[in-house]
Amino acid sequence: MDRIIEKKRWTPKKIAAYIGGILLVALVTYFIAFADNSSKLNVESQKITMATVSQGSFQEFIPVDGTVHPIKTILIPAVEGGTVDEKYLEGGKPVKQGDPILKLTNNRLVLDFMNQETLMNDLINNLQNSKLSLQQNKFNLRRRLATLDAQVDAAKDMYERNIALYEAKAVSQQEFFNFKREYERLKAERAIEQESQKFEENNARQQIAQLETTIARTSRNLHMMEDNLKNLYIKAPISGQLSSIQVELGTPVQSGQVIGQIDDLSGFKVKAELDQHYVSRVFAGQQGSFTYNGQTYPLEIALVYSEVTNGRFPIDMKFIGKVPEGIRRGQTLQIRLQLSDPAPAVLLPRGGFYQSTGGAWAYVLDESGKVASKRSIRLGRQNPEYYEVLEGLKPGEQVIVSSYDAFNDKDKLELK
Questions:
Q1: Beta-sheet pairing, 412-415 with 40-43
Q2: What is the distance, to the nearest Å, from the Cα of residue 174 to the centroid of all Cα atoms in its chain?
Q3: From CA 207, how far away is CA 134, in angstroms rounded?
Q4: Other C-beta atoms within 10 Å of 351: how many?
Q5: Which pLDDT score is estimated for 350?
Q6: Within the chain, how many helices (H) and strands (E) appear?
Q7: What are phi and psi of 176, to 5 degrees?
Q8: pTM greater than the 0.85 cutoff
Q9: Would you say 260 and 246 are in contact if contact means Cβ atoms under 8 Å apart?
Q10: 93 forms bridges with which residues in the sheet?
Q11: Using CA of residue 120, residue 121, residue 122, residue 126, what is the dihedral sign?
Q12: pLDDT at residue 2 greater than cutoff 70
């Protein structure tokens, strides 16, 4: 009798198939969950630039080209116009204060001076004549008053004698009144004469005062004209170097025209121009420095000009302490102008990567130094040498700082 044989459900083959399927699913799941799916790019290490993040002192500054100028430059104007008659010095020569530089001729000024001098002499003569006339009038007054006094005394004596004779009927009434009228007339005449002479004296004094005022004014004018004639000699206002003379013999010169300048070489200053972007961050007293012959020298802003021209504004800087020996007018200096005080910070050297990332991320090398991965970072202030790192980097880490344009935004770079 036949016996039914039960078919086995779990054959070795079937078990092996199930196990293989489970392993395949697990392997796929592992690769999906844990495998590195990031994009990579092989890069030659010789074609990139790396820099080390460091801990240091950060300071904002800007590089500025400054030009050395004399501490003071004085323009030489012609006070009076004229024609260049003589030229005593050429440009580039040292001068002392008061040294003659040019001589001008101006015939009109000479003629005006001569006319004014003649007028002055006439006024002085008139004044002397008026004073002499006043003195003579005083003598005449005293003489006439003396004569009148004598006549008044004689008339008075005659009048008083005839009073008694008139009362004694020794003289007639008419004769008596004649003596009386003569006495009264002489007294009145003396009073009038005295008043008239006083008026003439006051009038003469007023004329003298007016003449003296006119003479004083004319004398001042004459002195001014003398000074104008002296101004035809153009002299050095200070000691220094005559940097230029812009006229030649026979050249007509207008009043107020600048004919040259003198540089005061007793000291120097540095002039520079800055972009208008910094106009609110630059002020007098701010410091900078430059290197000359291997030594660093400090500078300080002395003056900030408010005018902005073509997007730039000028500043004047002065030397602090000793001026470098051998420095010359017109020399160009590379200046580090400080915009902030030094402060501790994490520093990353500047590089072309910033143009690609805007400072939002960077490629940071791992410990092996062969793989650089993308990492989010945050940068703060910057100067021509460093960025200030606020987040994402630690001192000692290596960062690729050259341009990222050729990396196509890959997640990792494998260095070879």
A1: parallel
A2: 100
A3: 10
A4: 19
A5: 92
A6: 4, 22
A7: -65, -45
A8: no
A9: yes
A10: 242
A11: positive
A12: no
